[in-house]
Amino acid sequence: SESCPKGLGGYNHHGKAWRFLLPPNLLYRASNNLLEHLASIITPWIDIIDGELGNGDCSLSMTDSSTSEGWTRKTNFKEAD
Q: Which among 13, 45, 62, 78 is most buried, taking Cβ atoms within 10 Å?
């Protein structure tokens, strides 16, 4: 997945691609880190909707934003003992 100040997009290993261009009234209202994070969530979500991922399947969602990667790995949930 990838983003820029004007939009975001991504593709899966089958080559299915998606993109979303931000409307003019939303340009420059979100950081590129936030757009990168949204893109890294949307890409596997599309695979789930298309039936490419099932229960228990793993997905690799890559980003070039270390901030987004950190947000993806962070959790506030404490696992039960």
A: 45
Full-model pTM: 0.72
Question: pLDDT tens-digit profile of 14-24?
Answer: 888 999 999 99
> Helices 66-73 and 32-49 meet at what angle, rounded to 10?
50
- Percentage of the chain modeled with pLDDT above 90: 21
On whether the CB atoms of residues 78 and 44 are closer than 8 A, the answer is no
Question: Rounded distance, CA 54 to CA 72, Å?
Answer: 20
Sheet holding 2-4, edge to edge: 2-4, 7-11, 17-21
Give the C-alpha distances (Å, rounded to integers) separating 20 from 6, 39, 77, 78. Answer: 9, 9, 31, 35
- 10's enclosing H/E stretch is strand 7-11
